[in-house]
Amino acid sequence: MPKRYAEETLRKLRNGIPIAALIADILGLPCKTAEGYFRFLCPQCGGFHTATNPKTNLARCFDCQRNFNPIDITMTVKRKNFREAVQFLQEIQTIDAKKLYAELAASMSAQTQRIREK
User: Fold this and answer.
1) Whole-number Å distance between alpha carbons of 75 and 94
2) Does CATH place domain 7-117 in 3.30.559.30?
């Protein structure tokens, strides 16, 4: 693991992984949509008085007054240090990119097959 991460790397992790998807799909925190807001169980205090802001890609707990970006919430939920959380999120990005590429390749293959059949 590197001692330091490039600013661009950290920016991509903080802004490139949608916070709501990270909370619900990857970290598996209990969540719901209430009053038009995505709510999740705060890993710090256990309250549901939370919200996410897709524009800033931040999550907030209004009970304990804690703000989370993707790295912060990963550190808290997974009980990892900063470097471990960054590495975990980099792996998630790699897996998602490979999955997206595989889905795109399969879609293109299916389209090619349909064209050949015509």
Assistant:
1) 19
2) no
Q: Count CB-CB contacts under 10 A for residue 15.
A: 13
Amino acid at 56: T
Cα dihedral value 97, 14, 27, 82, nearest 10: 110
pLDDT tens profile 57-116:
999 999 999 999 999 999 999 999 999 999 999 998 876 655 655 655 665 565 555 555
**Whether the Cβ atoms of residue 24 and residue 39 lie closer than 8 Å to each other:** no
Evaluate if pTM is beyond 0.90: no
Range with the poorest average pLDDT among 17-21, 34-38, 61-65, 81-85: 34-38
Tokens coding 103: 């889905």
